[in-house]
Each structure stands twice: as C-alpha cells, then as structure tokens.
Automatic annotation (TrEMBL):
Transmembrane segments: 41-60, 120-142, 154-172, 212-233, 253-273, 354-375, 381-401, 413-433, 473-500, 566-585
Chief place where the protein resides: membrane
Region listing for Disordered, in residue ranges: 307-331, 507-528
InterPro entries assigned: MFS, MFS_dom, MFS_trans_sf, Sugar_transporter_CS
Keywords: Membrane, Transmembrane, Transmembrane helix, Transport
Sequence ranges assigned to domain Major facilitator superfamily (MFS) profile in this UniProt record: 39-588
Protein name: Major facilitator superfamily (MFS) profile domain-containing protein
Keyword Chaperone: no
Subcellular location: Membrane
Membrane topology summary: Multi-pass membrane protein
One Pfam assignment: MFS_1
GO cellular component: membrane
Gene Ontology MF term list: transmembrane transporter activity
Species the sequence originates in: Linnemannia exigua
Length: 605
C-alpha cells in the first residue's frame, strides 16, 4: 500500500470517528486518543472517592456493633439477638468455645488467648460476607444493564443506591436499619466493575493493564487513608451537636456516615458533570484508530533499525504483511468459534479469580487474629501492619504493574503474585509455630498431631527474645508477599478478562461491518460478547470467593491452629498457581490486535 493510499485511509478513518462523535448523545464529550488520559483521571478520581466512602466504616465495625448490642440488650426478638445466637452455634461447630473452655483448666503457658468480643468480630465478618454475596448477585445484572443503557447512566443510577444506603446508615439507630443500609449498598454498588469496564472501553490492548492499574492504586490509597478518616470522624458525635435529631435515628457514629454521604454526593455530582459515555461507537472507532496508529509506529521503529533504504522497502513490506496477518488472525475464526473461546477463557479466569480470593481473603481475615494471638498486637500495631501492606501495594501498582504489565505479560505477573502469596503465607506459617496457645490449638487436648520433641523445641524457642524478633521479621516478610499479591493478581486477572472481551475486535474500523447506526449498540459483529456483562460475571465469582473465604479460613484456623492453617493455604496457593500456568490464556496468543506483531518485536530488538 502506498503512502498516499495510507493517508487517504487514515483521513477516512478520522472522518468516520468524527462523524460518530458528532452523532453521540449530548454530554458524551469528544472520543479521541487525546481524551483517554482525561477520562481515566475522571474514572480514577470518582473511584477513589467511592472506595474512601466504603472504607470509612471498616475501623468502626466492632464499636458500632457493640453499640447496637448495648442498645438492644435484653431484646431476644431482635435481628441482632438472632444473629448472635447463630454465631454462637457457629463457634461451637468450629470448636472455638471448646478451646476457650478448656483453657480455663490449663496452665497459663498453654492458655489460648481468645480475642476479646469474638462474637462481635465474627458478626462484622458475617456482614462483610453478606455484602460480597449481594455483589455476587448484582454484578452481572449491573454489567448487563451497562451494555444496554450505557456505563454512565447505570453508574449514576448505582450512585443513587449508594446515597440511599448512606442516608439509611446516617439514621440507623437500630441494627435492623443498619443491615438494611448494607443490603442496599451491596445490591447497588457498581462503581468498581463499571470503572473497569469504562477503562477497558477507551484503552487499547497494549495500554489496558496500565489503565486498569489505576483501579488497584485507588484501592490501595483508599484502604490506607479511608479507615483513618472514619476513625477520626467517629469522634464527632452528632447527637451531642444536634440532640433534636436523635428521635429520628441519629446515633454516635452518624458523623462517619455523614462523611461517607458527603463523599458520595461529591462523586455523583462530579460524574454527572464530567464523565462521558464510553460504551459508544465513537469510542470504539477511536480505540481502533489508536491501535492502527500503534501499528504504524511499530512499523516505523522497525524501519529505522533496518538500515538501507532498499532494505527498508523490503522490511516495510514484510512487516506490513506480518502485521496484517496478526491483526486479521481472528478473521480466520468465525464468530461462533470466537464466542466459544471467549466463554472458555472467561470461565477459566473466573475460576482462578474465585480460588485466589477464596484463599487470600480468608487468610487476610484471620491475620488480625494471628497477630493478636501470637504477638499481642495493639490496635496501633495492627494498623501499622495493615498500613505497610497497603502502602507497599500502592507503590508496586504504580511503579511496577502499571509500567511493566504489558511488557512482562499479564499471565506471568499473575503467576508472580501467586508465588509471592504462597511464599508469604509460608513465612507466616513458620513464624506462627511458637507460643503455648499455638501448641494447644495444634494438640486439641490429647489429639497431638506433632511429635512431643518438636512441640518442646517450639515452646523453648518461644521463650527466647531473639526468637520473637526473628518471628517479627518473618511476619513482615510474609506481609510483603501479601502486598505483592494484592498489587498484581486481581489487577492482571481483570486485565486478562478485559482483553478476552476484545477477541475478534480487530476489524477495520472504516468497514461497514463494524459501523452501526446506534452509537451505543453494546454488541457489534466485532465484539461477540458484552463487555459489561462479561466483566460483571468475572467480578461476581471473585465476590463469591471473598464471601466464603473468611468463613472457611476462620473455621480452619480455630480448629487446627495458625501453623497448619497458613501452611495449608500456602500449599493450596502453589497448586492454584500451577493450575493457572496451564489454563490461563496469554495475551500474545489471543486473536486481538496488540501493539506490534511478533515479527516487529523481533526486528526491533
């Protein structure tokens, strides 16, 4: 193809993009490659506000639930009394009450330090699992609606649900109203998955991981800052400031609820004023045009390396042919085969997502038990450990994942994160092998699972000061592994799922087959599956793992102790990493356009 014909093709493509942008609904903004950073910043800012509002409640949960317990004391017909009764049965089922009762007749060296207010801690975990189960139900529905109605419209509707949820919490003087607020929030929360879908809409396969890393960075920042904000505003008692509102349900923790409500209000107004619709034909054309430009740049880079002008002509021809072959690879597959491949890959990714979060969230939930149980951590020390994980995860996502994912490869980065998790959990398992309480949990009375000589050696090591310091270093080494995992696995799995949704989306954007009359047609011939629905299903399986993981991990932890619990989890993560290495797709093998074909990469090296 001559330079003149290329110029005409580019002009036609640009004209098509401009026409589609002009036909887009009002308020959508201009869809162009230059708008991608701006839209990404809008999505990131809104998501950060959303997660900050979500994390405000985390440090308040024990005291908030204790407030409801005190205020509803003696009412055996309340939802709170029924919930605590079911949790007592759960503690008996996992043997926690048996361990605690047996400790009263044991020596002080082997007594189990049962965390204070264990029923309140478990109730908080149960409410967290309830929220995740509701997200498991709602995520595919929200995703499907965003394919049909548009991302912007569905996101604003979900924000309305979040505002109602915080409004109910603000005046929830009873436990029933508080649970209602969590149910509303669980069913309406859609910012995370829609942010992922919107970034996927406007980025190319080569820049997808870089864009989606911003979601992980927002999580890391919010989970580091949000709890501190919630704890600070919890000291602002609105009942004392506005006693007349107490009769309407204002309670001592309404200050934090009001802060969350303000953040969500600002986020909603910001989204309404700034966010364009990304699920539109104009954005699809703009992305495809960017992919073409990336191919041209790769060809130019290879040409610069080629040397002589004669060789340049030959190289250009071979590169153009290779690139065309790569970019049209999916044309050899009919749409039914592409759809079948997508479903297969998404199923594998969803299973991996579920399995990873099932183990990771479970161990994350029991980590505070372990640090109290073995190290007598105060709330300040607990916060320091969790803050270390959050800050390190944020730095890794901004400095490593965002910059290197498309070079290292999303699949390889997932495996790196899983191996880091296995090593981290193994390190925590090793340092948890001390303390009379751990020995008691391992023994379970006369049911010893370890040789007595090994138990004696562990008990002796636990009395040594140097051993405690060494175990503290081992604990933070394990926390480092968990931070690496938090920064890599879910982000890159999400990137892979998003890229799988793009399979087949390499048709010439100027061809009639890829242009439809509706700018918000959510399913074109070049995209066999709705991206919102696919990513919603993917997220829902992760949420199911996040709901079930803490229950299973808590049961195992109190039944066999931290050494066996974390050791088994470490082995299980290794097995999942091995399985993932066999079943997860690689980006370079997917029938989608990438930054450059393998031939181009080889010639430029």
């Amino acid at each position: 193809m001559s330079a003149k014909s290329k110029t005409k093709g580019s002009s036609a493509s640009a004209a098509s993009t401009a026409a589609a942008a002009a036909a887009a609904p009002a308020g959508n903004g201009v869809a162009s490659p230059h708008s991608v950073p701006k839209v990404t910043r809008i999505v990131f800012t809104a998501l950060l506000l959303d997660i900050l509002a979500f994390t405000i409640i985390l440090p308040l949960s024990p005291r908030l639930l204790q407030f409801y317990r005190d205020s509803e004391h003696g009412d055996q017909t309340s939802l709170l009394a029924w919930s605590l009764s079911r949790l007592t049965e759960f503690q008996s089922a996992i043997g926690l009450n048996d361990h605690y009762n047996n400790s009263s007749s044991s020596s002080a060296s082997s007594a189990i330090k049962r965390p204070p207010k264990m029923d309140i801690v478990l109730l908080g975990g149960a409410l967290g699992s309830l929220f995740s189960v509701l997200q498991f139900i709602a995520s595919p529905i929200i995703g499907k609606l965003s394919d049909i109605l548009g991302r912007r419209r569905v996101l604003l509707i979900s924000m309305l649900g979040n505002l109602i949820s915080c409004g109910v919490w603000l005046f929830s003087s009873t436990f029933e109203l508080f649970v209602l607020s969590r149910i509303i929030g669980g069913l309406s929360e859609g910012n995370v998955q829609l942010s992922i879908a919107m970034i996927s809409d406007i980025t190319t396969p080569a820049t997808r991981s870089k864009g989606l890393a911003m979601v992980g960075i927002a999580f890391a920042i919010a989970f580091t800052v949000g709890p501190a904000m919630g704890a600070y505003f919890a000291n602002k008692d609105l009942v004392a400031a506005f006693p007349g509102l107490a009769e309407y349900g204002l309670h001592p923790f309404s200050g934090s609820a009001l802060l969350a409500l303000v953040l969500l209000t600002v986020e909603s107004l910001y989204l309404w004023a700034k966010l364009p619709e990304t699920n539109s034909e104009s954005w699809r054309l703009a992305v495809q045009q960017t992919v073409q430009q990336e191919s041209v740049e790769a060809t130019a880079a290879a040409t610069a390396v080629s040397g002589s002008s004669a060789r340049t002509t030959t190289t250009n021809g071979s590169i153009t042919s290779s690139s065309s072959s790569s970019s049209s690879s999916s044309s050899h597959l009919d749409q039914e085969k592409i759809h079948a491949l997508q479903q297969s890959y998404l199923s594998r990714l969803s299973f991996t997502h579920f399995a990873h979060l099932f183990l990771f969230s479970g161990m994350e939930f029991t980590l505070t038990f372990l640090t109290f149980h073995l190290f007598d951590f105060s709330h300040m020390q607990q916060g320091a450990l969790l803050g270390y994980i959050g800050i390190l995860s944020s730095l890794l996502q901004g400095g490593y994942v965002r910059r290197r994912a498309h070079i290292v490869g999303e699949k390889r980065m997932v495996l790196q994160g899983m191996v880091a998790a296995a090593l981290g959990l193994g390190s925590i398992a090793l340092v948890s092998g001390g303390g009379g309480s751990t020995i008691s949990l391992l023994l379970g009375g006369e049911k010893s699972i370890l040789p007595s000589t090994l138990i004696d050696a562990i008990a002796w090591l636990d009395t040594q000061e140097w051993s405690r310091k060494t175990r503290m270093w081992g604990l933070y080494a394990g926390a480092t592994g968990l931070a690496v995992t938090s920064a890599t696995v879910v982000n890159c799995l999400t990137s892979l799922a998003s890229l799988v949704c793009d399979m087949g989306s390499n048709t010439d954007p100027t061809s009639p087959s890829t242009t439809t009359s509706s700018p918000q047609n959510h399913k074109t011939p070049s995209q066999p599956i709705g991206k919102g629905l696919a990513l919603g299903r993917f997220r829902s399986w992760g949420q199911l793992g996040r709901a079930a993981g803490p229950i299973a991990a808590c049961s195992l932890y109190w039944r066999v102790g931290p050494l066996v619990c974390y050791g088994a989890a470490s082995f299980a993560v290794f097995m999942i990493a091995f399985l993932a290495s066999r079943i997860l797709p690689e980006v370079r093998k997917l029938p989608i356009r990438t930054r450059a074909s393998p031939a181009v990469v080889k010639k430029t090296q």
